[in-house]
UniProtKB/TrEMBL annotation:
This is DUF218 domain-containing protein. GO terms for cellular component: plasma membrane. CDD domains: YdcF-like. It comes from the Eukaryota. InterPro entries: Cell_Envelope_Assoc (IPR051599), DUF218 (IPR003848), Rossmann-like_a/b/a_fold (IPR014729). Residues 20-135 form the DUF218 domain.
Amino acid sequence: MNLPLRPASAIFCLCSLDTRIAAHAAQLYLDGIAPYLIFSGDSGVLTKGLFAEPEAVVFAAIAREMGVPDDRIIVEPRARNTGENVRFTYDLLREMGLLEELKQSLVLVQKPYMERRTYATFRKQWPDQRTLFTVSSPELSFDEYPDASNPRELVTSIMVGDLVRIKEYPARGFQIEQEIPDEVWEAGKRLVEAGFDKHLP
């Protein structure tokens, strides 16, 4: 989305199978972007059987290895979708007595192709509408992004599924509206017809 990156109250990393996102979030902390680093995520469809622990626990371990102090890491290990990332973490911060301190502004860290849907979900579902959000991800092009854990076919199917969610989820109250250019939507339909339909809602 190319949103400006500025100092914030906390870095909020939405976990997944891509551990490069954990490293990116940890580096943002080490660069002084925010004083706290939040990891949210249980085992999902793509990580069940891949990780022995919830995604948030795996990501937090990577951050510790990179030098992030343990007392600056917050782990929410139950969320199984983006809406739960929002709700469960908001509730956890309130229980920890950190909500008022950390809700002022958040840097949301996600995979590059999920920036827009993450932003749209938080803008809709985060309970405090005064919170300022920006989104960050590793600067990888579509050609650079696929690797052994994230093969091109899988990534393409997930991207198509996210495009459909961006279109359909506002009507269900899950996200704010986002404009989808006609040519992008038509390209998505062609990809579905070509078999990239494994991660549709």
